[in-house]
Specification:
By secondary structure, the protein is of the alpha/beta class. The chain has a domain of 153 residues: Rossmann fold (3-Layer(aba) Sandwich), CATH 3.40.50.300. It is 33% helix and 28% strand. It contains seven helices and ten strands. Strands 6-7-8-3-9-10 form a six-stranded mixed beta sheet, sandwiched between helices. The chain has a four-stranded antiparallel beta sheet with strand order 2-1-4-5. Helix 6 links the parallel strand 7 and strand 8. Helix 3 packs across helix 4 and helix 3 packs parallel to helix 5. The radius of gyration is 18 Å and the shape is globular. It starts with a strand and ends in a 9-residue tail after the last strand. The C terminus is likely disordered.
């Protein structure tokens, strides 16, 4: 489903360059639940943003399904993201001028879901995440944990083929964190491919493979449980 070959990212400083990712070769099959781990500054979030088509300043080859991402322009990459990906950002990335309801509705509008159906799907999401009473509030009226829940709900709402999550439970209470990870497990069991960045061994154990990264290099891979639907 996802194949990276010789992918590198560097930040230039005049004639010099600092590499953030080095010679990344990575395959992720449909139905896998992959955890990316490593120390702070190792390149974990950069790799996740690259996979999620949010970062276009890199070299190498990236294939997603039948698309050769490295050959596509920014507009086409954006279309693919909207169609296939959901992303839980560490810093939420909610739209400040939109209510909770409107933030949840946006991914559905990208996929041309009819208004009546959008209303039903958003209502279900608000109920599932216990946010019905907050639907008309703006992000700056929510706590950090509440914003995180909205961000997770928004990423999941359109049933993306690939769900990417950057420290998805970092601002949640432990019970909320377990609930979210259980949701991810159920999503994965139903066929959604999930890639998460986490510092938590407990969260990483929900996946079927752990990729360790250090100083921009993939240094180790560990397999645990079987993927829900490998090569679906």
């Amino acid at each position: 489903m996802i194949a990276l070959r010789g992918v590198e990212k560097a930040v230039k400083h005049g004639p010099n360059a600092t590499y953030i990712l080095r010679r990344i070769n990575l395959d992720i099959a449909a139905g896998e639940f992959v955890s990316i781990m490593g120390p702070s500054g190792a390149g974990k979030s950069t790799l996740l943003h690259l996979i999620g088509l949010y970062d276009s300043e890199w070299t190498g080859e990236y294939r997603f399904l039948d698309f050769e991402i490295h050959k596509l322009n920014k507009a086409k990459r954006s279309d693919i993201y909207k169609q296939y990906f959901g992303f839980v950002f560490q810093s939420y990335h909610l739209l400040d001028n939109l209510t909770v309801y409107e933030n949840l509705e946006i991914p559905l509008s990208y996929r041309n879901v009819r208004k009546a159906e959008r209303e039903s799907i958003v209502a279900d999401a608000l109920d599932r995440f216990h946010m019905v009473g907050k639907k008309d509030l703006f992000p700056n009226q929510l706590s950090g944990g509440q914003q995180q829940l909205v961000a997770i709900a928004r990423a999941m709402i359109a049933n993306p083929k690939v769900l990417l999550a950057d420290e998805p439970t970092g601002n949640l209470h432990s019970s909320q964190g377990r609930e979210i990870m259980d949701m991810f497990r159920r999503l994965n069991d139903s066929g959604t491919t999930i890639v998460q960045v986490t510092h938590s061994d407990q969260n990483a154990a929900y996946g079927n493979r752990i990729i360790e990264i250090s100083d921009g290099w993939i240094t180790n891979e560990t397999h645990s449980r079987s993927p829900a639907a490998a090569d679906r």
